[in-house]
Structure formats: C-alpha cells, structure tokens
Amino acid sequence: MRAKQILLVIMCLGFITNTEAQLLKKLKKRAEKAAERTILNRTDKEVSKKTDKTIDDVTTKKDKKDKKEADEQNSNADTAESSNSALNKNTKAKTEFYKEDLEIKLIENGALNQTQYFDADEVAVKTTQDNMPKPGYIDSEGFIYTYRDGEYTKSSLVALQSQGMMVPTLMLEAYKLPPEPFMAQLEKQNDMGMTANPFNGFVEFAFIYKLDDFRYEDYKETTQFVRGEKYTKFELINEPGFEGNYVLFDTKNRLVEVFSNKLETTQSAGDMYNMSMVPPGKNLLVYNYAPVDVELPQAREVKAQGQELMEGVMGNIVKGGNQSASPVDDDDYDTSNSKGQVKSVKKALKNHKVTEKDLPESYDFDWQYHAKMTMTSRKKESIDMTFLIKKGANYQATLMVDSKSKDMGSSIMLFDSNLNAMVMFMEAQGQKFMQIHPIPEHKQSNDIKDFKITKIPSKTILNYNCKGLQIEDDRYIIKMFHTTEAPVKLSHFMSFSGNKNMDIPDIDPSVISQLSDGLIMEMQMIDKKKSKNNVTITAKSLGNEPKQIVTSDYKVMDLFSGTRFLKN
User: Fold this and answer.
1) Fewer CB within 10 Å, N- or C-terminus of the chain?
2) Are residues 144 and 153 in contact, defined by beta-carbon separation less than 8 angstroms?
C-alpha cells in the first residue's frame, strides 16, 4: 500500500521521470488486462450460477440469442487482435530492438513539418501533420495506414526489401549520418527474417546510433549543458557543402537531435556520388523519450499502384515469420573497425580516373596455381580458383569458376598496383566485358591484434614439404601449410611486393615475416562461433602455364560514369 501511495503522490505532483513514466505505462496496461480478467472471472461465476437452472427454463429462442451475442463478441475480439497482427511476427526481436517510446519532430527550415509518435509496446507509429485530415500509421511490418473516403486502408509497399534500404539511405545522405552502423543493422534484421526498417529510418536511427559511432576523424566531439545537464555533441567536419551538421546525445547516451544544413552548391550532372534528392536547407530531427500510446485502426489491405510490378521485379517481400534457424551473433555486425569506410569508397569512386585507355595492351602470366575453395555450409558449391602469377610483375589475377554455374561463364579479378585499380574481366555466352574499379585507400588500424601463433605438424601437398602454422584469436583459428620449395612465393599469391609495396590488411606483420619466403598450399579458417562460416582452400596443381589477357577483347561495362553503360 505504501508503494502505491508514493506512486500516486509522484503522479499527482507531475515529477515523473521518463523511465518511471515508461514503467507506469506498462503497469497501466497490466492493470487493464487484470481488470479484463476480473470481469471474465465474474462472468464465469454468473454463468456457473445459471447452470443450476433446469434445462426446461432455457428456451430455444434464448439459446439462439446467446449464441449470436457470443459470436459477435468473438468476432470483435478477433478484429481487435488483428488490428496489430504485425506484432505477432518476430515479436521478440522487435521488442528487443525497439526499447523505448518516442516522440519525433521533423523540422524543416525552422517550421514543424511532421510529428511521429512511436509506441514501443505496440511497435507502431502514429504520424500527424497539418495537411492530414486524420493521423497516419505504420506497423512493424511496414504497412502504411492512410485515411481516405471514410475508412483506413493499409499497404505493404515498404515491406519490400528495397524500400527498407532505399528510403533510410536517402535520410542518411540528407543528414550525413555514418552509414556503416545502419547497413550492419539492415543486414542483421534481414538475417533474422525481419522486415527491415519499417519506419523508414526515423525511429530506427534512435536505436541504432551510439556515441562510439561518431568517434572518428570526421566528427569533433564537445560537451554542452542543456538545462543544467551535460550533453555530448558531435559536429561533422571534412564535409564540403554541409555547414554546422551535428548530432546530440543526452545524459543517458540517447540520440536526441540530428541537424543538417545543406548549402546551395553546384553539382555536376554526371556526379552520381554526391547526388541527393533532399533540397538545400536546414533539417532537424528532435527525439523526445516520453510515454506514447498508439492504437492501430482497423484497416482494409490494398495494393499500392505499381506494387505488384515492384514485387515481381524484387522477387521477395520480407514480412517476418521466416526467422533464421541459427541465432545471430552481434560480433558479425560490429562496425567499430569500419568507421568512414563507405565515405572512403565513395571518395575513391569519385576520384577514379583510370579508364580502359590506361590499361596495358595485355596482362601476361607465366604460372597458374589451381586451388579449390569450399565452405562448410556449401560443400556441393565449391569454387575453382586459379591464381595467375608473373614473377616481378606489379599485378596478379584470380580466375574463378563456381562449380554450380560453370555454364554461365567465368570471371578474372585482376589487381594492378601501378594503376591502383581492380579490373574484372568477365566472359559469358560468348560475350566479354570488363569493369574497372578503384582500390580504396586502406586505413591502418590502431588496434593491436592479439594473435597466438603456434607450429603444427607438417604435411606433403603436391609433392612439396609444407610447414604448418596456426594463428588463433578469440574468434578464429587459421591453419596454414606453406612451402619454400615452390618456384613462386607468397608475395605473388596474396599481395604485391614488386616496385610498389602494398599493405595486407588484417594480417599481423609477424605472420607475414614468417611466410614471405613461401607459398601457401592449404588454408583452413575455422569460426569458433559459427561452423557454417568455416572455409578451406586447398592447392590442386601448380604449373608453368602461360596465359594472356588482351584488354582490347573486352567491352567496358561502366557502372560509374553516369553516362553510357557499355562502351566499345
């Protein structure tokens, strides 16, 4: 009783914190359910009393009336439950991700454009704005509820996988948020069988972004006081065309503001890397973590115009219920070592000046090293790999053929360190194409990898004596067997070491020094947490087999020019 009195006093005084308010909201819903149970129990007692009457007192007419009333009650109950049937799918995953109620204000150039109310218990959004006669709604499966001609209808267009990425990606570009955490969460939701980003990113951003996501060279971290409490502010730097962009986190490390100021800038029509559908101006998202109640209206499902065509093109709609059989591992979606990676790739693409005219007339090779790569989860879908090697050259290539699709052609992935480019040579159905990609600048990580390196028994592979070495960390075990008797070395197999050295990412330097005079003949990568990720690469043959790639034989498939797709 004492606890209830204290709770009532706090409620009356109005000094309820957000956390307490969330608790009270849940208590309120539990109380409503308890009341429902009480009514049901009372009804049950009354029904029990009536059973004492004789059958003769019950007329046929009354039976029909009771049955009709019961059917109506059941029908109403079914209808009420179906108003938020989306929550029946992947319920646990949704409630674990969407943890708090939210009020989100979308402000454009100083004027309130829209307000969204997110209910974490219902995992649903109510949207209000001046030009809407009645609120709009979105459920956790991406169904959009709109009011028209006296009724609510709902459409599942956003449930398309492409919509779960397209709209939020535009928001990422508009507010210049780091895309890596968002992309990782998108992948995780897809792996779990969820409808990804049903709320177009506005709600999701609040639960995706953390302080550490902004702690890298593109942001300046400061603190500021708001109503006497210290908030953390990250100001965007090194981003021409955006002045004053920032994100703000409160004392509980929750995202509370996202501000973007896009300036009037000239943009080349062919520059596809800085294109944005958002016009210049100031945009602000304000997040208020306060209790919200959202009740989805009864709605008739309809198909949006062109939806069936889109579904046919995409070939897949994610509507839950197909959750992965194996649990996801959060380590697979860790982006702490990939900060700024997408920006680096976009920068490399934008500055990419290499064309087919810069390529040599041919790439010539002396040696062919044949190997097979097999994944534990796909033993019947092995990939034949042929490493094409030329001693002393600043390029190397790998020819790959999937055993499942041999008739569909082959592809050669060539790395040219002189041009700092990767060239894909593809051949299928008698046609030859090539794509030229830049190699993004590799940023050296400050993280010191804790490797345990041990020797393992040697073995003979392709008549070469191969020494064994095991490299282990907290997640992986890599077993390698290498030989110093082969005519080619590791440097021509996994990296460049001619006139222009290139770093090998994610490999400890001490390991490189041990293997630099050898050729790896077998490699086993073991994932301690997920055996399905285990990979084995085994040598099949090594021979002095010349091969030549004549670049003029291939048409350029230019995906990055913004102009012609194919060029002769």
Assistant:
1) N
2) no
Does residue 332 share a domain with residue 384? no
For residue 194, give the amino acid letter.
M
Total of domains in the chain: 3
Whether residue 455 contacts residue 364, with contact meaning beta carbons closer than 8 Å, is answered with no
The answer as to whether 71 is a domain residue is: no
Claim to verify: residue 38 and residue 177 sit in the same structural domain: no
The three-class DSSP label of residue 370 is strand
Which tokens belong to 392?
A: 């002393």
Q: Using H for helix, E for strand and C for coil, what is the string for 197-233?
A: CCCCCHHHHHHHCCHHHHCCCCEEEEEEEECCEEEEE
The Cα-based distances of 475 to 97, 230, 268, 378, 419 in angstroms read 25, 38, 46, 21, 35
Per-residue burial over 157-169, b = 16 or more CB atoms within 10 Å of its CB, e = otherwise: bbbbbebbbebbb
Query: Which is it for strands 555-557 and 431-438: parallel, antiparallel or unpaired?
Result: parallel
- 314 lies in the same domain as 365: no
In a domain, 192, yes or no: yes
Query: Three-class SS of residue 31?
Result: helix
Residue 125 tokens read as 């959004």
CA separation for the pair 434, 432 (Å, rounded):
7
* DSSP 8-state secondary structure symbol assigned to residue 304: P
- 436 assigned to some structural domain: yes
Same domain, 231 and 370: no
Please say which residue of 291, 321, 347 terminates a domain.
347
pLDDT, averaged per 10 consecutive residues of the chain (568 residues), comes to 34 38 48 46 44 42 46 41 80 93 96 96 95 93 91 75 70 90 90 87 96 95 90 93 93 96 65 60 95 94 67 48 60 84 77 85 94 77 86 87 66 89 87 85 58 89 92 88 84 41 47 70 88 88 94 79 41
**DSSP 3-state of 487:** coil
Q: Which residue matches tokens 């004789």? A: 54
Q: Which domain holds residue 219?
A: 95-347
* Residues 465 and 520 reside in one and the same domain: yes
Give the Cα separation of 249 and 231 in Å (integer).
6
Q: What's this model's pTM, rounded to 2 decimal places? A: 0.68
Q: Kindly state whether residue 284 falls inside one of the protein's structural domains.
A: yes
For residue 194, give every residue at least 6 positions away whose Cβ sits within 8 Å of its Cβ, in sequence order, or none. Answer: 90, 93, 94, 318, 320, 323
CB-CB neighbours of 233 under 10 Å: 18
Kindly state whether residues 233 and 205 are assigned to the same domain. Answer: yes
Q: Which amino acid is at 140?
A: S
What residue type is assigned to position 169 of the chain?
T
Report the first-to-last Cα separation within the chain, whole angstroms: 84
CATH number of the domain that residue 410 is part of: 2.50.20.10
If asked whether residues 561 and 476 sit together in one domain, one would say yes
